[in-house]
Amino acid sequence: MQFDHRHYVPCLRWKQGEYQAVSRLPIMVKENFTPLIEAPEIGWDHENSRQAKTIDEHLAPFAKRIYRKWGQQACFVDLGILAPFTGMESGVHPLRFVFDQLRTMECEAIPVTEPGRDKAFQREVKRTLDKDRFGVCLRIPIEQAAKDLLRAEVDSLLSALGARPQNCDLVLDLDAPNFVPLDGFSRAILAVVTRLPHLREWRTFAVLGTSFPETVAGIRKGGERIQRYEWQLYKLLATCFNDAGIRLPTFGDHVIAHPKVLDLDMRLVKPSATIRYAIEDGWYVVKGENVRDYKFEQYRELSKNVVNSPYYYGSTFSWGDEYIMNCATGVGKTGNLSMWRQVGTNHHVTVVTQDIASFYASSDSP
Length: 366
Hints:
Blueprint: E1 8-13, H1 16-23, H2 27-30, E2 36-38, E3 44-45, E4 50-51, H3 55-59, H4 62-69, E5 75-78, H5 94-104, E6 109-113, H6 119-132, E7 136-141, H7 142-145, H8 150-161, E8 168-175, H9 182-194, E9 204-209, E10 222-227, H10 229-244, E11 250-253, E12 272-279, E13 282-290, H11 291-294, H12 299-308, H13 319-329, H14 337-361
Helix pairs in contact: 1-4, 1-14, 4-5, 5-6, 9-10, 12-13, 13-14
């Protein structure tokens, strides 16, 4: 696998809204990105004070969903959210279980790890690397990247895995930082990147982050435009890195979600109806009432809001845009929360692949 800075690495929590959104993308869009697929959290059964599923039940469909919804092409697969692991009934490590299944389906799945993960996890990464020869992805949190010991930690991990930078992918994970002021933050990232070990040797190099809010509680009802600071930052970094002769990174984001795993008691939560719609340098978030009391018919008006806004890309832009138009005109269904995550994700990935192509095609970009 090989790609450059003109590519896209969306980080996707592999829930129904995300994997269905990806499955509906045309080949011409899929060719322009490589997903970083996260095994989602198990969740908590608050009523019975226990995990909602066993690790066996939770992971049973995971590999099959990667194969069925993404296919055999290259992808990064990260089980870090589930660590530290409780044992599977068979005694097999969860990472081995998942990658053994992906191997039988001939998927080019690349395991994701980082220096801080436990020895059992790293042993299974090495086993996978030795068997598949697809390489490994190092996901380095920005806090760790800023430390003086990073080179020693990275080199120690590479040695333990028997890997070289040339067959490894590096993801600098910003998580969800405070991006403002952008100029100052971009200079701080530049300083970190210039100190990354083996920068020009990694097979691929991506910067991942998001400014999407942790919750939409602070967004007013109706339509509100919020900033996609991660994309604005990336454009600054690309220009700055190019001028300084530094390797250009690939852009990565968390699509239309915040990376934090929320432990919510769904018996008490009343989620709002929202359409999360990517636009130039931002999102247009259209928010209604809570769906528990006001149901899903309200999505007709929310869809009309998007369609009648100056931001709408048109019904032929993506499957998600067609769904919004059909809902607005009464032709289609009003869906549910998972369906609207699917709509927003499908539109977002299409927008970002177009944004990247346009940015690098422009005369004043590197």
